[in-house]
Specification:
By secondary structure, this protein is α/β, with parallel strands linked by helices. The protein is built from 18 helices and 27 strands. The structure holds 5-amino-5-deoxy-1-O-phosphono-D-mannitol.
Length: 612
Amino acid sequence: MCGIVGFTKKKYRSACCLEVLLNGLENLEYRGYDSAGIAVSDMEHQELKLCRAVGRISNLRRVVEEEKPEGSCGIGHTRWATHGKPSVENCHPHLAEKKTVAVVHNGIIENYQALKLQLQKEGVHFASQTDTEVVAQLLEKQYCGDMKKTLERVLPQLEGSFALAILDRNQPDTIYCARRRSPLLLAKGEDGAYLASDISALLDYTRDVWYIDEDSIAVLTPEEIMFWKDGEQQFPQSVHINWDSSAARKNGFDHFMLKEIFDQPTALRDTLNHYVDVEKGIIRRETMPFTMEQAKALKRLTIAACGTAYHAAVMGQSLLEQVAGVPAMAAVASEYRYSTMPPMEGEVFMAVSQSGETADTLAALTHKKAQGLRCLALSNVIGSTIAREADHVMYTLAGPEIAVASTKAYLTQVLLFEILALDLANLRGVLSDEELKVRIAELAQLPEQVEAILASKKTVEDFVQTQKNCHDIFFIGRLMDYASSLEAALKLKEISYLHSEAYAAGELKHGTIALVDESCLVVVTATQSVVLEKTLANMEEVRARGAELLLLGHFPVDHPHDCTVWNIPACSDQLAPILTTVYAQLFAYYMAKMHGCDIDKPRNLAKSVTVE
Ligand code: M6R
């Protein structure tokens, strides 16, 4: 989705404003976009200069090289079209009619049509079809000689969500910002002050950032950043982001997705060591969201999330029920945000989100918070909106995830559910300290087991070469294998554009088996011992319809199943779906590569979906 960057440079520092903006936009490319632009305040000529282009940032770079705008203070934007097609006119930044104000915006101004109509009646001419342009026009029209005061007057007129960065022609070294339900962070560096919608744009310059409160305004000059809310100046604390900028580079891999698949052993190790003292075989109490009393009082955990994070929630639901005996319910956040179910006594809510910015997940959390429920979050991004809104956050330590297709975030989310389930089981008295030690020892083996699967990537690559003509793929499994099948199917469809579906293996014959014939590949995941024979029987049903079979699980070398088998290292049933997922990720990756797809930036998708 859209990305924002901004920079205002200190005098006599060597940094180049244009380069900071363009580099920042390049670091936001992974979010998905269709056009990009920058605006700089040209002090000498007292004007705001725009450069905009459709397509990649390389196109924008060409425009910048041709037009050579000058300035040490500017804002930039990558646009993912919502209102109006991708075109130069619709591209941000938007200038107001008299060119005194330039605006970049993430989010949606829901009442823009009414505002636009009113402005048009007052004689304002619009140059684009976007909702954003009304903000620029309103600011110019209602300007009172002080941009902060003007913003305080304009913001209450806007409905919807926004992160705004604004240049005022009269103050060529200042950037004004405001936000409501869209992320925006600010930072000071040696060369000046920065802003961005996402830390990835700033990792080359700083790690200490400030988040702006909901409905607040921030004013950036090269020397300082000031925060305002309801007319009062605020003094928020900065947050240190412990990410390495090299973690946001490909480091020799062809794609971020492959690099992130290979990051997984480290991501699992880092996450595990943060929450668990592996040597002592104990969970670090201070990192956990429940005291013994709270754990015993817990009657239900409702978990809302979207996409891959939802699949982690489905896995979490099984783990919490099986390991800790806690009734749990995974819900799709875009539906659950409209749930009319009253809260239950003893219920706790949890939002799961890699980015911590997904609009539907945030809305579900806000809804449950308003009902008075205790709200937890599981997120990968420190200080993200969901993390800040929750009463307690469990962070995955996966590092920056750049590829649109989530891999390492998912695996660490599932690991956190494993740890949470073990902790709750221990606190509720269903798992002894000794049993906990054994389970932690199993968890500690996961990183090496993932490494073992990664070492067999050639097996996956070779198999994929035999699937050139395959266009329909079904993933089937039971219990936790069904949950991992959901994720396997999503991974494949989002990056390879092949038709893939996940089914609870026993459900197939209630309709969908009608689609199965010799042109299909059916991937059977069979790791759950309690239903193993039943899953294998379902496999025979699809074999009988001529489908090609790929079987994931632990099977002896001389297994009787006449099909390709990919074995995972020996582990408990509860950990097996983590390991089969690694095969599924590699399978999706090599299928997409064989079909020549844009793996890191799949069509129509954005990394972080910040609109409903
Ligand atoms: O940042 P979030 O975890 O909230 O994102 C949720 C989904 O948008 C995300 O998982 C999406 O499904 C990915 N493309 C999956 O690979």
